[in-house]
Amino acid sequence: MTSPSKSVIGAGKALSRRSALSGLAATCVAASAKWSWAAESGDGPSFSADGPDAELYGAAENYPIKDGGRIYQPGNPAPKYRVGAFSHYDEIFPTRHVDRAATAWPFKRTPADVSYQYKGSSASLAEYLARNPVTGLLIAKDDRILVERYQYGRTDRDRLMSQSMAKSINGMLIGIATAEGAIKSIDDAAEIYVPGLKGTEYGATPIRALLHMSSGVKFGEENEEARGGGGDLDRLWGDMVRGFSQKGTVASIAQFNQRIAPPGTRFHYASIEADVLGLVLRYATGQSTCGYLQEKVWQPIGTEADAKWMIDAEGGEVAHGFFNAVLRDYARLARLLAHDGAWEGKQIIPAQWMIDATTVRASETYLVKAEGVFGYGYQVYLFPGSRRQFALLGYLGQRILVDPPSKLVMVQTAVDEKSPEIWRLWSAVIAQFG
Description:
Layout: H1 17-22, E1 46-47, H2 82-85, E2 95-98, E3 108-109, E4 115-118, E5 121-124, H3 125-131, E6 134-141, E7 144-150, E8 160-161, H4 165-179, H5 207-211, H6 231-241, H7 249-254, H8 271-285, H9 289-298, E9 307-310, E10 323-325, H10 327-338, E11 342-343, E12 346-347, H11 351-357, E13 375-376, E14 381-382, E15 390-393, E16 399-403, E17 408-414, H12 421-433
Parallel strand pairs: 1-7, 3-7
Antiparallel strand pairs: 2-9, 4-5, 6-7, 6-17, 8-10, 9-10, 11-12, 13-14, 14-15, 15-16, 16-17
């Protein structure tokens, strides 16, 4: 997950991460909503001022960005503020720029529709969007956009929230830094690169185990309040992001210092593991995460818009979430991943890293079904079955789904996760265009 506990999220709770992932083979009931598309301009994107449960998400107040009743805004606000906040995050929190490319790489367009089975009946994209609180949806096959649609008045110029998809971006950068020799080996302990972690359990954890969310260090995510662990993410947020304690970033992480399992032996989702990796990346490269991303990926793939990444109280990027970009640039990133790190003949992310990141080694069978039916790679989720597919997933319905064999990708930004219907849609996309 990527923010303080659900006590600050408010009404309209999302599915838990495990429930959402388990919905790969499930159906559930979703409420109907009024729906209308604005007229398309040529073959370009479609826009709608409406969306399902629009009043819940702040339509009457033109989708407010901030909660005026709070001095300190939560990372995951109440539903009323999510549409506005998740498209204007830099107006709430400090961020760092990732500059766009000098020349944007152009997508081609081949407009298409998708039909799929939902609750025993044929469903369309319009029906999918009428049931799901999606701000943007884009489907592309290699260099061609098949679908690009927006809801709740959001447009192709809005930088939309990634939530935990940012973890996967950070993991990708670890791969580049390793290939370049800034990180000597992912079997090195984190403390080799971050001196402040020396003598701590996270410091003694190999980078590979952090990539696999298998550090063995005790840390509770926000869906674990019933087991007494949900306060850990709140504490990390307050200390590292808000700076309430004046601990500083390294000490905020180092305070979680109880080992309950050997590293590399069991999967346990913990956002803090991405933050340790973020420190390793910055210390190893001597650059900000945004600077490294801009140089190594964002500009080489021809992005059309600047991106922004939230920074903590010390000015370091919050590696476990809160990266913000326009939808087509997420699609360019997805295309890079679908080509196993290659872009127009140039290898940007090492191909072997991409293979290693999206498969499970024979010695690491505990990762095969780390999250229900899903496996876990280097900060990415792995689909079950023999076909290699993987996903970047955010807490509230943010998704980048990648099918390397067909070069199909699907990008979704959202403000809630109320249904696992997306997995039905994705399966139909693969069947229809793969």
